[in-house]
Amino acid sequence: MSTFPCPLCDVALEIGTTKKQKPYMICEPCGLQIFVRYQKGIDRLEELSGREVSLMDGFVVCKSCDVAVRKSLHSIQEPLFGKAGLYCPSCEELLLKAPPNWKEKRKG
Ligand SMILES: [Zn+2]
Ligand SMILES: [Zn+2]
Q1: Beta-carbon neighbour count of residue 96 at 10 Å?
Q2: Rounded CA gap, 12 and 49, in Å?
Q3: Cα Rg for the chain, rounded, in angstroms?
Q4: C-alpha span between 55 and 45 (Å, rounded)
Q5: Among 68, 41, 46, which Cα is nearest to 2's?
Q6: In the predicted model, what is the mean pLDDT of the chain?
Q7: Distance between CA atoms of 1 and 15, rounded to whole angstroms?
Q8: What's the distance, CA 64 to chain centroid?
Q9: What is the mean pLDDT of residues 39-60?
Q10: What is the 3-state secondary structure (H, E, C) of the chain?
């Protein structure tokens, strides 16, 4: 089952499929509905949902290594030639992109 985090509350939403075979997500607490109508968006969603699936709340899981990394600002790494985010300690794959203001948040 693929999930995608709600952009408002960050809860993992189950990705459903419409009658027209397009993916959609509904966040009941937020009253948010997301429909992805174009192929470009569907491709992006598949890519992102594959990377951002979380089995446990507060963790991101690397599917290839079966390694869980805690979602915490202190776990964020910023490689010289890469994006800031949470990386798998085994294969060094980017598992979750850091929010744009993570540095300010980390300073607290
Ligand atoms: Zn929500
Ligand atoms: Zn990995």
Answers
A1: 19
A2: 10
A3: 15
A4: 18
A5: 46
A6: 85
A7: 8
A8: 16
A9: 70
A10: CCEEECCCCCCEEECEECCCCCEEEEECCCCEEEECCCHHHHHHHHHHHHHHCCCCCCEEEECCCCEEEECCHHHCECCCCCCCEEECCCCCCEEEECCCCHHHHHHC
Span from the CA of 6 to the centroid of ligand 2 (angstroms): 24
Taking the CA of 94 as reference, the closest ligand is: 2
pTM listed for this prediction: 0.47
Measure 57 CA to ligand 1 centroid, in angstroms.
14
Question: Cα of 12 to ligand 1 centre, how many Å?
Answer: 9
* From 13-27, 58-72, 79-93, the region with the lowest mean pLDDT: 58-72
- Phi-psi category of residue 66: left, alpha or beta, with phi > 0 → left and psi -120 to 50 → alpha: left
For 90, the token pair is: 């085994």
pLDDT at residue 53, as a whole number: 43
